[in-house]
Write a structure and sequence with these properties.
The chain is an alpha+beta fold. Helix content is 47%, strand content 22%. The longest helix is centred in the middle third of the chain and has 49 residues, at 116-164. The chain binds adenosine-5'-diphosphate and magnesium ion. InterPro entries: HATPase_C_sf (IPR036890), HATPase_dom (IPR003594), His_kinase_dom (IPR005467), PAS (IPR000014), PAS-like_dom_sf (IPR035965), Sensor_HK_TwoCompSys (IPR050482), Sig_transdc_His_kin_sub3_dim/P (IPR011712).
Length: 336
């Protein structure tokens, strides 16, 4: 293809394209980039409002998009020479080696052009990514807590036991018992936190056993009565479905206790021909669903978690309570 044709194609794109060298000098820009920014060939592309301010280590690249570990895309204010004002752009870059030198292709997009639909799609993908990353991180932290910190505290506890009988002074003995008590409590807390971060039982024993054990812990910890009914016999749930359902219940229970001040919580799982259904009902203070929905991240994540496994969740509540969180997972999809 002739160079002229390439230029025509790039000029017709609905995105601004700017090619810069490693000193940020503009070697080429398409018509749209020129109109958007007012930059000219030979100009040095300024840093965006974020990169200008961000702290960088000695030798580190200031531009977040040209970084060793670059972001796929990024939105920030960029100083333009058009009317001398800063404009908000979505930006992404690709590094390309040309004739032995390294160039960067900077793609500029006016966020106003991104359609609402596209925006929602990106938001959804981001949330799903965040949830997946969160799970990975939680697993890693749970392992560290269990295998390192908990072992360390336990060794200290055992070490103390070894010197216990040498302490004869009454004052030191009571001091010793306090330290012993603190270590025991810390071990309990680590264990509780580890389970919360990654209910190991999910991987080993499945949702039913994990829920049973969690309900026992919640009863003690939250001082709330629980009824658990798990009537799923036909379906063998995948680990992914089990984990997402467990996280949903965890959030619903925390919300019932924390926001609703519930004293009774019922968790119910049933199945039909092609779905499994769940309900979490609490007798707490309730809330105005229309007003509150998706103001916090918890409900939003619950919704997204269900969408990830072909399911749905809905809330039925009013001020004064009760609150019903219910939904289903479609089992027709063999991927589940
Ligand atoms: N079971 C519940 N009882 C009473 N209020 C609730 C309940 N679940 C959710 N809410 C209300 O919905 C809001 C949003 O919940 P959520 O998205 O989990 O965010 P967060 O828990 O971080 O506040 C809560 O702040 C609370 O006002
Ligand atoms: Mg919450």
């Amino acid at each position: 293809m002739k160079l002229e044709w390439f230029k025509q194609v790039v000029d017709d794109l609905s995105e601004g394209v700017v090619i810069i060298n490693k000193d940020r000098v503009i070697h080429y820009h398409n018509q749209l980039a020129k109109e958007m920014t007012g930059w000219e060939l030979g100009d040095v592309v300024p840093y965006c409002s974020y990169c200008k301010m961000r702290e960088v280590a000695p030798g580190e690249e200031r531009c977040i998009l040209a970084h060793e570990d670059p972001l796929p895309s990024f939105q920030a204010h960029m100083p333009t020479y058009k009317g001398k004002k800063e404009t908000s752009f979505e930006m992404s870059t690709t590094k390309i080696p040309l004739e032995g030198m390294e160039f960067m292709v900077l793609i500029l997009r006016n966020p106003k052009w991104t359609s609402e639909k596209e925006r929602l799609k990106i938001k959804k993908l981001l949330i799903r990514d965040t949830i997946a990353t969160q799970e990975k991180e939680r697993k890693a932290i749970a392992m560290e807590l269990h295998d390192d910190i908990s072992q360390g505290v336990y060794s200290a506890f055992l070490g103390l036991q070894g010197v216990k009988h040498h302490i004869t002074d009454e004052n030191y003995q009571s001091h010793f018992r306090k330290i012993e008590g603190t270590l025991e409590k810390t071990l309990d807390n680590i264990q509780r936190l580890t389970k919360q971060l990654r209910p190991q039982a999910i991987d080993q024993f499945g949702l039913k056993a994990t829920l049973k054990s969690a309900v026992e812990d919640w009863k003690k910890f939250y001082k709330v009565n629980f009824t658990l009914s798990y009537q799923i016999h036909e379906y063998q749930l995948s680990k992914e479905v089990e984990l997402q359902l467990f996280r949903l219940i965890q959030e619903a229970v925390t919300n019932a206790v924390r926001h609703g001040k519930a004293k009774e919580i019922m968790i119910k799982f049933t199945e039909s021909e092609d779905q499994i259904m769940f309900q979490i009902i609490d007798d707490g203070q309730g809330f105005d669903v229309g007003q509150t929905k998706f103001k916090g991240l918890g409900l939003y994540h619950m919704k997204e978690r269900m969408a990830m496994i072909n399911g749905e969740v809905n809330w039925d509540s009013k001020i004064g309570g009760p609150t019903k969180v219910e939904g289903y997972v479609d089992m027709n999809n063999k991927g589940c």
